[in-house]
Amino acid sequence: MQRAAVVYFSQTGTTAHAANEIHRIVGGPLIEIHRQPAYPEDYAQLVTVAQQEREAQVLPTLMPLTASLDDVDTVFLGFPSWWAQPPLVIDQFLRTTDLRGKTIVPFLTSVSSTIAESQATLQRLVQHAGARLAPGVTANTPEVLQAFMAQYEG
Ligand SMILES: Cc1cc2nc3c(=O)[nH]c(=O)nc-3n(C[C@H](O)[C@H](O)[C@H](O)COP(=O)(O)O)c2cc1C
What we know:
Rossmann fold, 17% strand
């Protein structure tokens, strides 16, 4: 495979776990996206802040990425499903990072929502970034993630 990176946002650690699994297989930079300031840790406050942000469509400020994506061809991009959509952190990452010519492979964790529900949003943002959207995965079980990653192994 061409050079890969794993980039993810994770509020409570579930997506981070999937990101680590993918990184174990593909290597390359492992980059966590951080909102600046961080979302509240308290669940009710988090929901309030995230909901206000979404309703007002205010794109959050992000911390600078901790590694360069310049030499990377394939970006595995992970996030939790929030209201069946990528969090606005992901919108902001896709709008503000130079991803031209790269392939984006999305992976999502959730209670029940699927990557298919985020597809239209991802397609729009990835296309706008001049990148290509590859099929993604709803990475809610190790078995599903492992089966999906088989195509990238070796
Ligand atoms: C603000 C918010 C909205 C959420 N909306 C959904 C949803 O629409 N569908 C779903 O299946 N799970 C939803 N969840 C649950 C998360 O997607 C799920 O717990 C995810 O695995 C968390 O990943 P993380 O630990 O990497 O942050 C939501 C969680 C939060 C905090």
